[in-house]
């Protein structure tokens, strides 16, 4: 059996706010989709080491490898130290500002740009470029156009490879072999286009070198200019700033949508079947997306995401879905790619996501919470916005008593998940607050009655055992119940919350690394510890005043990041290796908020636990904003 060289945690993210690529420690780009995050992959070696395709650039001889992002960028530099010499490889997806006055509008090159430079001794460099379009479905046609330009074309895709040194086309790949001495360099770029488009012929060697150098410099400048607007104030600054860069890279600039992850089907357990496509935007992420962007100081991105929310959900409130494509697509059929063996033979490989049609009542609460926070930040809701969210509130009144698939999207019989009921209470509570504050019309009396009925329901579920279980009739622990204080339902000091923290920590975790739950859910196999859940526990500790425990847990969670600061969805408790799609936006958003909460608490600014955590973070940001002049 062939062994894949890179595991999930070996990858670094390259992004241009339209699409993404993942590059391994060995210098191999094993995943890339163009022109969008959810386009059909042109490289997917990470899902099948034989059929997937890759773009490798590395020394011919074994070498020790270190790497890091250039400060405040998503530009990666890998240093290979071989016996004969040292090679630096700098990788990026080139991107530049489309409109200098608008940080949201960016333009991609739809390419992967790589720069190799020998800094010491002599290095023999090998390039192996073997794309396999449409998720490795077929072998494209490879052809040389000139000594320094070649193409791979087939179906709807074409990749043109341009270099400042000779390259060679073979029937199944494009290769190169260069000998570099100290001070010598080479540039190589793979540009995507539609198969019926034709590339411009290369210019002179000097012109091509200058053009590619200028694009790398423009990309570095883009990321650094964007990061100048980061207002985060608190401890763990570098980790928070790296998370900000990840979130920006996972944002689809034309619409403002944020994908959950740039990959599909990376397993939650190696050899298991819990492999899902995360290249979409979940409505559930709305609150965390908005508040993390606000906390970071990126109000323009928050506005763009809000516009995406309101336009994507346009139409009848009853047609709201739990997730959408990055441009608002509703039709996301789930298919299995049976020709791919999966990451480390973890089949099936899936594209699309069947959960799109599930009933998940928590989405209603997150939309209303996002609207509430948006108004708290001093931004207005239009009449159309309010008509839509008040319609959602009316639906909550009708449907909160129904079972659903819940936050974890179980593929089993629906249940009365407490997290879903909690979010229905959030929807009603926030609708009442918005209407009261802004004098907006609505069935407020009914909303208040149903809100109070929900509170009674939730408290009754907790009263018999003294803690909040997963669902009515399921007296088992579920990490999502840690959000009871996060939404302002009860203070963190309430006995039921403290008991819930104890039960969840003891039954679902080891040293703070928590599983989501440990009950049957209609799927075979297990999964790793879910990082988001551990961040929830961390926030509970912070707001309970248990700051030493909170900081110890935070340090452990930060230790779950890979060598370039990226977090996965889950982690293997035995090995510490990341699991699931990578990197995970949810984990990085949680890192931002938890660091902000804990930093504030250590300064003595601990919010009342009865106030929801997002409001507390927003209030701190608004207080700081009022006392300073925005960055130019």
Mind explaining what this structure looks like?
With 632 residues, this protein is of the alpha+beta class. The protein has two domains: 12-227, Beta-galactosidase, Chain A, domain 5; 238-626, Alpha/alpha barrel (Glycosyltransferase), CATH 1.50.10. It contains 14 helices and 28 strands. It has a 15-stranded antiparallel beta sheet that branches. It has a three-stranded antiparallel beta sheet with strand order 26-27-28.
Mind telling me which CATH architecture of the largest domain this is?
Alpha/alpha barrel
Low-confidence stretches: none
User: What amount of the residues lies in strands?
Assistant: 15-25%
Which structural class is indicated by helix and strand composition?
alpha+beta
CATH class of the largest domain: Mainly Alpha
Shape: elongated
Q: What is the terminal-to-terminal distance? A: 56 Å
In the residues, how many domains can be counted?
A: 2
Rg over CA atoms, rounded to whole Å, is 25 Å
Average of pLDDT: 92
Q: In terms of topology, how is this protein built?
A:
Blueprint lengths: L11 E4 L4 E4 L4 E6 L7 E3 L9 E7 L3 E7 L6 E7 L2 E8 L2 E5 L2 E7 L2 E21 L1 H4 L4 E6 L2 E6 L2 E7 L4 E3 L2 E9 L3 E10 L10 H23 L9 H13 L1 E2 L4 E2 L22 E2 L3 H11 L2 H14 L10 E2 L10 E2 L13 E2 L10 H15 L6 H17 L18 H21 L5 H20 L31 H14 E2 L2 E2 L14 E2 H13 L3 H12 L11 E2 L6 E2 L5 H18 L10 H14 L6
Antiparallel strand pairs: 1-2, 2-3, 3-4, 3-5, 5-11, 6-7, 7-8, 8-11, 9-10, 11-16, 11-17, 12-13, 13-14, 14-17, 15-16, 18-19, 20-21, 22-23, 24-25, 26-27, 27-28
Helix pairs in contact: 3-13, 4-5, 4-6, 4-13, 4-14, 6-7, 6-8, 7-8, 8-9, 11-12, 11-13, 12-13
